[in-house]
Amino acid sequence: MYRPSxxxxxxxxARGRLEVSQTFQFPQLSILGWLLAVATxxxxxxxxxxxAQAADVSRKNSADIRAVVQAQLDALAVDDADRAFSFAxxxxxxxxxxxxxxxxxxxxxxxxxHRPASVAFLKPEFQGAEVIQAVQMTDAKGVAWLAVYTLxxxxxxxxRISGCAVVPNEGRAV
Length: 174
Prior knowledge:
The protein has helices at about 30-55, 60-75, 80-85, 90-95, 100-110, 110-115, and strands spanning about 1-5, 20-25, 120, 125, 130-140, 145-155, 160-170. The chain is of the alpha+beta class. It has 2 domains: about 1-55, no CATH class; about 60-170, Roll (Nuclear Transport Factor 2, Chain: A). Strands 3, 4, 5, 6 and 7 form a 5-stranded antiparallel beta sheet that branches. Strands 1-2 form a two-stranded antiparallel ribbon.
C-alpha cells in the first residue's frame, strides 16, 4: 500500500515548502503467501520468456532448420558420408576429422538416426544462440525415440547441426 507523507523541512532554506517523502508498505502476507506470490511471478516470467523465444523461430528459419536435418537424414539413409557430414557444424567437423569417421559414429552410436523407420518434426525453439529441433523417430523394431538436435546459425546465414542427443521417447509414438 502506497502512503505519501508530508513533512515540513527542517532547514532554514527550505522553509515555506512542503516536502513529500514516499514510503511503501508491503501488505502483510504469511511466508507461504510470499512464496506463492514469488512462484506465480517466476512462472509468469518463464512462460512469457519461453513464448517469446519460441516465437522468434520464424517460419522461414523453421523450414530451413527442418530441411537441414531432413537432408542429413536422407544422406545417412544412403550412406552418403560426405553429404551427411556437410550439414555438421564446424565444431563437429573438427572433432570428427573425416566424413567416414562421422558416418561410423552415427551408424554405431545413433542407429535410429542412421536408419529411422519414421520421423516427425516438432516445433523448433531457441535456446540461447542455438536452435533446438526435436524429432520423434521410431526404429525398425517400432521403438519410439526422441532425437534432440542443436543447430547453429553460420556466418553465411545457413544452419548447421552442432549436436544430437537421442533418448527413449516415453510420450506418444510417431
